Amino acid sequence: MKLEGIAIIGMSGRFPGASNVQEFWQNLINGVDSISHFREDELEYSVSTAAEQAAGQKCVRARGVLDNVDQFDAEFFGINPREAEVMDPQHRLFLECAWESIESAGYDPGEYPGLIGVFAGCSLNSYLLFNLCKDRAFAAGFAGNYQVANYSILLGNDKDFLATRVSYKLNLKGPSMAIQSACSTSLVAVCQACTNLLTYQCDMALAGGAAISFPQKRNYLFQEGSLVSGDGICRTFDEAADGTVFGNGVAVLLLKRLADAVADGDSVLAVIKGSAINNDGEVKVSYAAPSVDAQASVIAMAQAAADVDPESISYIEAHGTGTPLGDPIELAALTKAFRDGGAKRNGYCAIGTAKTNISHLDIAAGSTGLIKTVLQLYHGLIPPLLHFKSPNPKIDFARSPFFPVTEKIEWKRGDIPRRAGVSAFGVGGTNAHVIVEEAPVIEAGGSSRSQQLLLLSAKTETALKKMSENLAIHLLAHPEQNLSDVAFTLKVGRKSFVNRRALVASDIADAVGKLRSGDAKQLFGIKPPQSDPSVIFVFPGQGAQFVEMGRGLYESEPVFQKEVDRCAEILRSHLDLDIRSILYPATADRQRADSQINETAVTQPAIFTVEYALAKLWLSWGVKPAVLIGHSIGEYVAAVLAESFTLENALALLSARAKLMQALPGGSMLAVRLDGETVEAMLPPEASIAALNSAKLCTISGPDNLLKSFQSELEANKIASRFLATSHAFHSAMMEPMVAKFTEIVRQTPRAEPIIPWISTCTGTWIKPGDLADPSYWSRQLRYTVRFAEALDCALKDAPKIILEVGPGQALAQLAHQHPEKSKVITVCSTLDSSNASGNEQAFILTSLGKLWLAGVKPDWTGFYANEKRRHIQLPTYPFERKRHWVEPVKEPHPALNSGRNTVPANGARSSADPNHAGDATVTAGLLENVIHEQLRLMTEQLETLQTKESV
Predict the structure, then answer these.
(1) pTM of the predicted protein model
(2) Reported CATH class of domain 7-274+282-442
(3) Distance (Å, rounded) from C-alpha 855 to C-alpha 861?
């Protein structure tokens, strides 16, 4: 499959009657006319006085209105309230839509490694004129001193700064430029974005436009033959069409080279196969009039760029302003382009426009039409063209390739990809056309994990709560989505904020239930995280082992499996067995394995293998230790990670250690709920303090019978104690017979300075060069007391840290919770449950990963998903918490703004009014009739000439 073209991977917008793209689609497909019609008492401003209306001027109270344009989440973007208040709402809403468009594609703009460009334009800033500009003095001062006194207001209101503000606030480093070409602006922006992507000046690009004019609720003057509709209804291509209606909107798309989008696992909504831009030049009736030849040319250029046959195009999203002559000229240009391109059939290509639903959105019209077309391709439906009853008599649909869509029709996939053309023609003659094709079918990937970790974060707790509910609603509505892709998109496609939640779920229903449960055990969160917190890896010693420890991870995590296999192969020559047969036995061998797992010669290599493989798994997920602490044999894992030992040498040394211990007389170890000083005063002479684990917990070692008698004595004094699952009395005098021989083995083993700081549990402080140089260190380490509590003291002396237990069980995690300096512990996490009773080690370790993220750790999600092909999918975007930022307008605009109302230019120059394009000015009552009629006559002759050629 050739992956050529530009993928559309994200979209966002605000439209009349729709606060987002999804609502826009529902209105389109349900045939909703979203143009608002106002009562007289609802008008915020009137273009005509009562006397002028009484004299015969007709005013129409209709417009496409956006709700809540005074609202903005300034805090989210780090904009202070005063700055937000004086900023053009077009800038504000475009900024929100830009963020949403990137998030809708499943990306965090701050973490994307490539360059993201911005290409955008906006309409005339009437907020500045009507709301901020209170009098002539302000206008004069702004014009004369804007570079000094009003510079901040200029930055928030001039068209030049729309695109660059987005780049600044979202930290985008690709090309960033303002595009202005009147009504074609936002589609021209799309074309420019495509060019920059194809020339590798950026890797993704935002393209679109904003058009919000104030006051929104105002009327306009109507005159026969003008641009605007006489009753506030846009009847594109209809015989009753008498003009367009203007409205407000914002539309933004995110684009990417198709090959890159597929390789990166993006959800491709549609593909731009070709685009073109041109200008009419001077060969036309007037500056603002359209040119059939230029329109036909730009359509043909786009088709040539896309390398498609016009007969393969089955839909056209027309400019379609609904003017009596503009519509026929557009159809004539389309027909010419299609016929010249070889299309011979009639009536095979549907044609429609969004303007009949939402009005003409000026600058944002082209990108809005493109979004509508993408939605049609995505959903396989074409919505009806509203208000169409019979065609404009100047349009001969029967002898053209086109037919108007009068009712909702299915647009199914076939042998040839579904294709569409989208047009936008601007006042002044800049024309744009793009060819859009359905997205290629991309197979969804599976997942090696039966459990998924879902992460959510927001700037505020209330936004986080709303985010959770929005996700639950979305998942209920889209049960077909792959939960693995949901989890992936939430991890890599969302910025991490301080208020966080995490949950582990097995399927969509499980996720929805936990999102809505409010159960802290299922939907867990903590206080705002520390910045770049340090993590301590702590490795448990003997006594925590059990058969099947890590089996769930061995079967689901390739990194863990690889490291277990590696250790097992190295250990074969030292143990004369496969350690995996004991760790993960067949059912028939389970009883044998349960016995062998507690034999010291097997136990210690088994624990090391699991802990080392777990550590490598955490490292592959980007969880890196700042400090290492190993409890007894756990210190060997620390030494290997710190590169003081090679893995091969450590396993050889540990195997020799375990065999020497196994050959010694048996003994016992007893955990006692008392401090070391008190226990030492009670201790029989033949027993030793093996470990000082916390201020109120220590372990003693000695002969079996001696410790049994000692336990009876403790029970009599109501002191809690518990025997550990060990075969020998480690860290006691009973180890003395092996010390000399083991010291000699260590002497022959290469050792190196650690690359990761490492705290010795033999000394209770940082490992020193002299310790590693001395071969007797490792003999003292097995003979004398494990000073785990002191090691934690040492680790927690400076900044707060996270403690992660890397091994079977949660014994060390519990000790950390009991530590006197626990206030310096941000959070404590374990890796494996204390037994395999739950049968779900994957859920356990993912829960810990979630807790680490909650505490501020930044995992490497690339490593986490290294063995999966995941997709960026569409999920709910950030729930902005908008507040009112608004400067109320003066009740009546000052004379400087209103002095030209209803007047004729002094020089009697011809009007630039255009029956095809919609500038936002109204045609005044004093417009010279002969100028209008002359333009209409010339355009009619041009159209009749074209139709005669077509007939021939």
Answers:
(1) 0.89
(2) alpha beta
(3) 16
What is the SS3 assignment for 432-476? Answer: EEEEEEECCCCCCCCCCCCCEEEEEEECCHHHHHHHHHHHHHHHH
Of 382, 120, 402, the closest CA to residue 252 belongs to 120
Cβ neighbours of 817 (radius 10 Å):
13
Report which residue type is found at 368: T
Other CB atoms within 10 A of residue 253 CB: 30
| Residue 233 Cα distances to 58, 475, 802, 864, 922, angstroms | 15, 38, 64, 55, 16
632 catalytic? Reply is yes
Give the pLDDT mean for 170-184.
97
**pLDDT tens track for 43-73:** 998 887 666 666 667 899 999 999 999 999 9
Which residue in this structure is represented by tokens 């209170």?
A: 134
Which candidate in 186, 226, 632, 655 is catalytic? 632
b/e 577-615 (16+ beta carbons within 10 angstroms → b): eebbebbbbeeeeeeebeebbbebbbbbbbbbbbbbbbb
Burial of 544 (0-12, 13-18, 19+ CB in 10 A): buried
Alpha helices of 748-840 — where are they, by DSSP H? 769-773, 777-783, 788-795, 811-818
pLDDT value of residue 919:
35
SS in 3 state form for 758-783? Answer: EECCCCCCECCHHHHHCCCHHHHHHH
User: Which of 66-75, 262-271, 446-455 is least confident?
Assistant: 446-455
Residue linked to tokens 């969804």: 444
Query: Does the fold of domain 534-837 match that of domain 443-525+838-870?
Result: no
Q: Are 430 and 181 in contact (CB under 8 A)?
A: yes
Within 182-279, strands assigned E span 204-211, 220-222, 249-257, 270-279
**pLDDT grade, residue 799 (50/70/90)?**
confident
pLDDT, tens digit, 9 for 90 and up, residues 836-882: 545 589 999 999 999 999 999 999 999 999 989 999 999 999 999 99
* Residue 194 appears among annotated catalytic residues: no
User: Average pLDDT of 88-111?
Assistant: 97
- Cα atoms in the Cβ-side hemisphere of radius 13 Å centred on 359: 33
Active-site residue (options: 91, 319, 728, 819): 319
- Burial environment of residue 740 by CB neighbours within 10 A (0 to 12, 13 to 18, 19 or more): exposed
Which one is the CATH code of 443-525+838-870: 1.20.210.10, 3.90.1150.10, 3.30.70.260, 3.30.70.3290?
Answer: 3.30.70.3290
Q: By the 8 A CB rule, do 455 and 502 touch?
A: yes
Domain boundaries, the chain: 7-274+282-442, 443-525+838-870, 534-837
865: nearest Cα among 849, 848, 854, 841: 849
Decide: helix, strand or coil at residue 52: helix
Identify the active-site residue in 97, 122, 133, 183: 183
915 vs 911: CA distance, rounded Å: 12
| 183 belongs to the catalytic site | yes
For residue 258, the tally of other CB atoms under 10 A from its CB is 25
Are the C-beta atoms of residues 525 and 515 closer than 8 Å to each other?
Answer: no
Instruction: Record the tokens describing residue 364, joined without a space.
Output: 């944002």
Catalytic member of 48, 133, 267, 360:
360
Domain 534-837, what architecture? 3-Layer(aba) Sandwich (3.40)
